[in-house]
Design a protein that fits this description.
By secondary structure, the chain is α/β, with parallel strands linked by helices. It is about 50% helix and about 15% strand. It contains 14 helices and ten strands. The strands form three sheets. The chain has a four-stranded parallel sheet, sandwiched between helices. Helix 13 links the parallel strand 9 and strand 10. Helix 5 runs antiparallel to helix 7 and helix 10 runs antiparallel to helix 11. The chain starts with a strand and ends with a helix. The mean pLDDT is about 95.
């Protein structure tokens, strides 16, 4: 029997104007944005809808803005949310997956991501770094290239995004060296990314303790559906394991390619992406070859879907 998954996107999916239509059509959504604004100390609705883009790209703002968009979609879908067997999210998107499965309340997910984003931006400022995307080298070759480049600084695989795309993360010199070595090793492409820091690398270690302390005081319930965790690419079904893995996720690679492999092996053929853009559906197109993929980004997407299924 065919199975389905909900995907929640992560950082870099944002765009100026995201979520405005969802916000204007729901007081419940407006209240969630207000909660986030109070926590951040900035009008996150205004920043999401009007920019400027450079400010919206800041980790401190990007992460809560994307999560708010995803949660706004869930609020509008309500009981019309497509049925699903698994949920997972890319990096910060994991909080959306935990919210939709009841492991966290929407409010707690927002508060946790606001805290996570603040801590990660602080870590970026304390230990500057960057990331690069490499296409056309497998995991073994990437590991070898990172090991060679580590003589000039810290660099590790950070995002296993697909069978063909792996991002590395670390100090600027080491990441630049990975780009050079990857091209020598036959990579189809290797390029520095425009990101705020060395995410999912040891340079994010300063953010771990603060997040661990924050999550220690939060109620995390067993999810109603299996959430496939970034750190392990395996389902996590109890609150304490979720808490531990969310902390580990800050400095561990996002095993998204392995997550997609797990889903395929367990019969998933239908994908629903909840939030801005279609990045995760795009990654899945080649690796998962789904029979069906749907993206809910704008209010019109939701209205069209409800109209068809009504």
């Amino acid at each position: 029997m065919s199975k389905s998954v909900l995907f929640f996107p992560g950082q870099a999916s944002q765009y100026v104007g995201m979520g405005r239509d969802l916000y204007e059509a729901s007081t419940e959504v407006q209240q969630l944005y207000q909660l986030a604004s109070d926590e951040i100390g900035v009008d996150i609705a205004k920043l999401s809808f009007e920019g400027p883009a450079e400010e919206l790209k800041r980790t401190r703002f990007t992460q809560p803005a994307i999560l708010l968009h995803s949660l706004a979609v869930l609020i509008h879908l309500g009981d019309d949310l497509p049925s699903f067997d698994f949920a997972c999210g890319h990096s910060l998107g994991e909080y959306g997956a935990l919210a939709v499965t009841g492991a966290m309340t929407y409010e707690d997910a927002v508060k946790a991501v606001v805290r996570r984003a603040y801590l990660m931006e602080e870590a970026c400022q304390a230990q500057p770094g960057t990331m690069a995307a490499v296409m056309g080298l497998d995991e073994t070759r990437i590991m070898e290239v990172c090991e060679k480049a580590s003589v000039v600084g810290t660099v590790v695989p950070a995002n296993f995004n697909s069978n063909n795309q792996i991002a590395v993360s670390g100090s600027l010199k080491a990441v630049q060296e990975v780009v050079r070595l990857a091209k020598e090793a036959g990579a189809k492409r290797a390029l520095i990314l425009e990101v705020g820091g060395a995410f999912h690398s040891p340079l994010m270690a300063p953010a771990r303790q603060g997040l661990e302390d924050y999550l220690a005081g939060m109620i995390i319930n067993p999810p109603t559906r299996p959430v496939v965790a970034n750190v392990t690419a395996q389902p996590v079904t109890d609150g304490e394991s979720i808490r531990k893995l969310l902390v580990e996720q800050v400095t561990s690679p996002v095993r998204w390619s392995q997550t997609m492999n797990y889903l395929v092996d367990h019969g998933v053929t239908e994908i629903t992406e909840i939030g801005p853009g279609r990045v995760l559906c795009g990654l899945a197109k080649r690796d998962m070859r789904p029979e069906q993929s749907i993206n809910f980004d704008k209010l019109s997407d939701i209205e069209s879907f409800i109209g068809v299924t009504a």
